[in-house]
TrEMBL record:
Keyword Electron transport: no
Stored NCBIfam families: wecB
Pfam family, one: Epimerase_2
Annotated UDP-N-acetylglucosamine 2-epimerase domain residues: 25-366
Similarity comment: Belongs to the UDP-N-acetylglucosamine 2-epimerase family.
Organism of derivation: Calorimonas adulescens
Domain of life: Bacteria
Protein name: UDP-N-acetylglucosamine 2-epimerase (non-hydrolyzing)
CDD domains: GTB_UDP-GlcNAc_2-Epimerase
């Protein structure tokens, strides 16, 4: 029997997290030869995720350099993919989301006349500078893609408005929700020792995850000042902040928050430590896109430390709130959830619009039908 060669390409920790359950699902089907290629746009954090899920890599471009620029990542990824395609020609390249690896791999596939499937397609802020460079990465990838796996009906409508044929779009839910059963455990013991020393029964844990490029400088300082005010105000609150390794983030956070009572600063966490911390948290303050999707499935409110979001469904559903980057606004909205039980429960009990844990099965089912191995497509995600 002919096996269809499918190549997944990713390069960062968030991509790896969201692609891992899809890779595991595709590998269940004998109809597919699933090839894994990583660019290594991130290195250590990427390797952690691959190890947790037991995913073996077929091609590793290892492009990461010290102080690499976006140009470095783009050029080296395209050149690296050219070398991969000279050794193996897949029938379809699957990329994820909005990273520079995603755009570069899609462009390289286009140059070799290989079809592209875009997982988590159709997210838009409609501002090419925000988030930078992610908004343009996903738009350009959308122009290059042949199949668009949109996480929500809203993302599908964004693509249709840009001229993508509806027949080439399939709504799946988000694969990040598929990850949670692999990682969350009631009796979990943290590998990061400091996290085992927190009294999760008596203290309210506020997880902070902020590192985006557009928040460097004054916005990051505002976030830290708001955290300091909250710690002074609420004695039953513990802040846990996994601090990104980038010096532009690290220097600001450590200079303003290191040594504060009830403020636990740790290095970036691997996925099972992070998910189990989020599961035990009271609420989350973040500029991350992925956390806006996965945390509501745990019943935790999310305050988004950005001025815009490409995930408006969560705002409409009430699972997240966009609070901006001014100290007073961050403090006010976090304080409201810490002091008003009704406001807290309204967010915590809202239904997550991003998935039901079946996205990877929908994608693999679609591809089985697309290549003639099954007679019908699965039902689209509808929430």
């Amino acid at each position: 029997m002919h096996k269809v060669k499918l190549m997944t390409v990713f390069g960062t920790r968030p991509e790896a997290i969201k692609m891992a359950p899809l890779i595991l699902e595709l590998k269940k089907h004998d109809s597919f030869e699933t090839i894994v290629c990583v660019t290594g746009q991130h290195r250590e954090m990427l390797d952690q995720v691959l190890g947790i899920f037991g995913i073996d890599v077929d091609f590793d471009l290892n492009i990461m350099q010290e102080k690499q620029s976006l140009t470095d990542i783009t050029v080296n990824a395209i050149k690296g993919m050219e070398g991969v395609f000279s050794k193996v020609t897949p029938e379809l390249v699957l990329v994820h989301g909005d990273t520079t690896t995603t755009f570069a791999a899609s462009l390289a596939a286009f140059y070799h006349k290989i079809k592209v499937a875009h997982v988590e397609a159709g997210l838009r802020t409609h501002d090419k500078w925000f988030p930078f460079p992610e908004e343009m990465n996903r738009k350009l990838t959308g122009d290059l893609a042949d199949i668009h796996f949109a996480p929500t009906a809203g993302a599908k409508q964004n693509l249709i408005a840009e001229g993508v044929a509806a027949d080439n779009i399939f709504v799946t839910g988000n694969t990040v929700i598929d990850v949670l059963p692999y990682t969350i455990k009631e009796d979990y013991y943290f590998k990061t020792v400091a996290l085992n020393e927190i009294d999760y029964d008596k203290m309210r844990i506020v997880v902070v995850e902020a590192h985006r490029r557009e928040n460097w400088g004054r916005p990051m300082e505002n976030i830290c000042r708001a955290i300091k005010r909250l710690l002074r105000e609420y004695s039953d609150m513990v802040v846990v902040y996994p601090v990104h390794l980038n010096p532009a983030v690290r220097d600001t956070v450590l200079s303003m928050l290191d040594g504060l009572d009830r403020c636990v600063l740790v290095d970036p966490l691997d996925i099972d430590d992070m998910h189990n911390l989020l599961y035990r948290s009271y609420m989350v303050l973040t500029d991350s896109g992925g956390l806006q999707e996965e945390v509501p499935s745990m019943g935790k409110p999310v305050l988004v430390l950005r001025r815009e979001t490409e995930r408006p469904e969560a705002v409409e559903a009430g699972t997240v709130k966009l609070v901006g980057l001014e100290e007073k606004d961050i403090y006010r909205e976090a304080s409201l959830l810490l002091s008003d039980a009704r406001e807290y429960l309204a967010m915590a009990n809202s239904v997550n619009p991003y998935g039901d844990g079946q996205a990877s099965k929908r994608i693999s089912g679609y591809l089985l039908n697309y290549y003639g191995f099954s007679k019908a497509k699965p039902e689209e995600f509808n929430r």
